[in-house]
Amino acid sequence: MKEAVNGDKPILAVRDLEKTFGSVVAARDITVSVPAEQTVGVIGANGAGKTTFVNMITGHLTPSKGTILFEDKDITGMPSREITQLGISRSFQVAQIFPTLSVFDNMVIAAAVARRAGGLLGNVTTPVHSPDAIAEADATIDLFQIDRYRNTTASQLPQGVRKLLDIGMAVVGWPRLLLLDEPTSGISIEEKFDLMNVVMSALKTRKITVLFVEHDMEIVARFADRVLAFYDGTVIADGTAHETLDNPRVQELISGVRKPGGAHA
Ligand SMILES: Nc1ncnc2c1ncn2[C@@H]1O[C@H](COP(=O)(O)OP(=O)(O)O)[C@@H](O)[C@H]1O
Ligand SMILES: [Mg+2]
Prior knowledge:
Helices cover 35% and strands 24% of the residues. It has 265 residues and is α/β, with parallel strands linked by helices. The protein folds into two domains: 1-78 and 176-194 and 207-259, P-loop containing nucleotide triphosphate hydrolases (Rossmann fold, 3-Layer(aba) Sandwich); 94-174, no CATH class. Strand 4 (65-70) and strand 5 (73-74) form a beta hairpin. Helix 2 (80-86) crosses helix 3 (103-119). Bound molecules: adenosine-5'-diphosphate (ADP) and magnesium ion (MG).
């Protein structure tokens, strides 16, 4: 599973990306290059184009213009299933879990699906509870520190644990790039940091490059190596968390970003 870090070669290279819905330009002129193992925060007001950007990378939306390269392979407009097979995974704003099944069963199904996706339809007869799927599920349950909930029905889980399960299910197939769309939404301020500590250390352990959309600027400042600020469909700032959050245009245009002196915009 382990691979050498490929020097300065980007794992993801997006060029001149654009998405229009009729007359609405949801994303435009997006050019971003992400080195392997970087943790990239994505900020911006509602409607700024963050989810559209994520959806184009994961193949849930086809770009109107531009190109997306993943590990030098052109994935522009590929179906999401093929993109997942290549090593890109995601979580959604609303957790995609089976509420009546246990944590372990959810994870083992995600592991089995990931294995089938990797091996295509030839493996369709592989039982869900194969030894490999069980091993991957247990390793990921441990990695996300939810082993004491292993046999708990998902619908009974505290919200934070449910998020960990959801993200764990996106990671159980060993993706190399993960996209998280508002992973801390619906989580109390007190719990957010603990949640993100577990998630980010798990991703570091597996050397996963991550782009995460986040509204809480303290979380962004704490966890992102780099921050992209979206406004009106495009990237208006791209730099370290400090650089982006201190950018006057970002402070003017994106609410919640601190102005000098500590007041909120
Ligand atoms: N399927 C769609 N059809 C039409 N307009 C859309 C669609 N998806 C997003 N949009 C529009 O594109 C813009 C960007 O939306 P989105 O990417 O969801 O923003 P964000 O995630 O930053 O809140 C918004 O104006 C939104 O209304
Ligand atoms: Mg969104």
